[in-house]
Amino acid sequence: MTESQNYISLVSNLVGLVRNETLEGRPYLAVPMVMIKEGVLNGSDGPILYTSEELAKVPQVWNTKPVVVQHPTLNGKSLSACDPDVLEKYRVGMIMNTSWDGQRLKAEAWLEPSRLEAVDSRVLNAVQKGEMMEVSTGLFSEIEPKPGVFKGRHYKGVVRNLRPDHLAILPDSIGACSIADGAGLMRNSRKEMELILNSFGINRDAAHDKVRLLLRNAASAELGERFDFVENVFDTTFVYKTNEGLWQRNYSLQGGKAVLEGFPIRVEKKVTYVALANEEQGKSKMKNEIKNNKAIVEELSSHGVRTEEDREFLEGLSEGQLTKNMQTAKTAVVTPSIPPTEEKKEEIVGEVKQVDNTEQVKAPSDYLEALPAEIREVLNEALSTQAEQKTKLVETIVANKKNILSKEQLATLKMTELKAMAALAQEEPKAKTSYAGLGPVGNVQNEVVEEPLLAPTMNFERK
Predict the structure, then answer these.
(1) What residue ranges do the domains of the chain occupy?
(2) 156 Cβ partners below 8 Å, 6+ apart?
(3) 259-268, 356-365, 392-401, 415-424 — which is least confidently predicted?
(4) CATH code linked to domain 18-187
């Protein structure tokens, strides 16, 4: 088999990997999977036989059914994933391109990255790493009570009349038709592709170089002079350089060519270097530091520093800290330890002159004078407006009966503080009671006075 034939075989096997799709304006990750296989499966009804005859019936009815994370339940009872509340909480995508290959019910899980982030990011991480994950079908069916044995496994019934409801991704549990049984998300994934490459004896590094060349040709044809070079290549994405920076793009290999897919994403390259632990180097460095520290402490002693009682503390400092103290000790002036007499003390005090190095604070007008006339005019107007606002705020605060500060005290506060206090000081207008819509109450002008009716009387006297 020639090198070109090896490369063609590689392209043929890479078609089943994750790709980007768009439906109704929303981005999806199309992830290959095997939902279920013919055989005896231990589900909620015990060991039941799923036959090829039943699984092969109209596989397209699975398409567009929801993909959720975990089977939805309520109080221990299974729910349909097509319920609006379940879709809102657990749905991460839908089933597409379902087919029966004679033994397996295969399909693609079209997953929305935004929903994966919101519901369970572990699924997205597994897809990005090319790792398989357990899945489980949710369906309605009728079970024919017909015990038997299939490939050495006993079953108590046979599934009939399948009606699909959903597919569940199981990050924390194992499905009835598990990865070990041949099902799962990311079937024909990167790890399986490694086994296929090894079985054909293909040099993966050589193939990688060819993929890089194909990607360079495809990117150059699409971007023209903007394209610079291919920075890095991964299984389904690659990073390239343009005159605008680094970009990441999805791709697939079809018919010996690289096909660029989706939209480019601006990325930033970050490189980190991790120091390797070396015990011998660490011990040697520590010994040198201890030796240097002792030498510095000894030299500090020669400059009059009291190190005898503080030696243990000084030797515990870092070399940098001791070096800084050394420089200070060399430049410091050491004063005599004998206290001066009272007469000498008076003489010294008499010679002391107070020097005021405090810089004189300038008024705003001093700064304005140094500015151009146009800017000075704008700033003067701004200062004037601010002064007016400050005066109004102070008056508002002082007018409040609960205020205890004087105008002079308020004038020293900042504008933000005054605005906050003024907002609190303003009394809210009392709500007026409205009787609109009510009938007349009390005395009303032009009121019509009605005379009361006379009470009827009854005369029981006999005539």
Answers:
(1) 18-187, 210-267, 283-327, 376-410
(2) 46, 47, 48, 145, 147
(3) 356-365
(4) 3.20.16
